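Tutorial handout. Part one gives the primary structure; part two gives the three-dimensional structure as tokens.
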Amino acid sequence: MSNLHNTIEYINSLSQSDPRELIDRSEQRFKNIIRDVSDKVENDAGLQIVMLAGPSASGKTTTAQKLAEEFTRRGMKTYRVSLDDFYLDRTDIPGYSEGNPDYETVFALDLPLIEKCLNSLLRGETTVMPTFDFVSGKRKDESYEITLGKSDAIVVEGLHALNPIITDKLPHERILKIYISVSSRIYDENNKIILNKRNMRFIRRMVRDYNFRGSSVENTYELWDNVRSGEDKYLFPYSGLADMRINSVHLSEPCLFKETALSLLRDADLDGERAKDAARLIRALEKFNSISPEMVPETSLLREFLG
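Part two.
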């Protein structure tokens, strides 16, 4: 176990006596992490590119935004870049012609263009950056320009941001590699796992899919198998290459997600192993006290999932 108070007894005790305090402690812990990363970049004048990678529902998007905001507050004009904008057109994705496209592989990205753009930025050149349309599965005609000044920075986020196929093409002294994930389980006082790390990410994603994408629990489960396979093959083998690691867990989240997640899971039409998994999640979530999501600050990482 980590040095977090990641036990259900602690979470339930504080959520009952002072739910605001539980939320505030979770939020302050994450603010401290953003501060520590920002200190590292600010104190090392050579660093200009932060490569941020993590699995699905780890909070990459919000963390990239928070880092960019903090860097800018410290006088470093900062841009955010998503590796998703470097996807190849759908028909060029490996396996597409065989009817089994692999959207998770690093080779689904335009690797020469990534190398060209990032190194161009490091040379201080005005660089045209692509944007991708996931509806049509093609790169958009619209693009945008970035010019990176000497005191500026960029945060590059994506599943493959730590892959050596990408990072080895960049000067290592100019980049900071960060791995973000939910890196703590929730235990009971007997050290029995109540929610594991993937459970917590799945709950985040399920609620986000429902809130933002009108997607059903059934569809989240359908996608989850491929997501997990892609992470196992293309992300986790490179997590050890990170210079810094971010644990995005918020101990308040089981209480905050509880009511929505339970409603979704109970209403889902599942069978087989998925039905068994949903039943396990229901039993786990029922053990937590509920906290209204309305108590969560608008700036919280959890808003990426709660709305």
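Part three, for discussion. Residues 24 and 296 are 9 Å apart (CA to CA). The radius of gyration is 20 Å.
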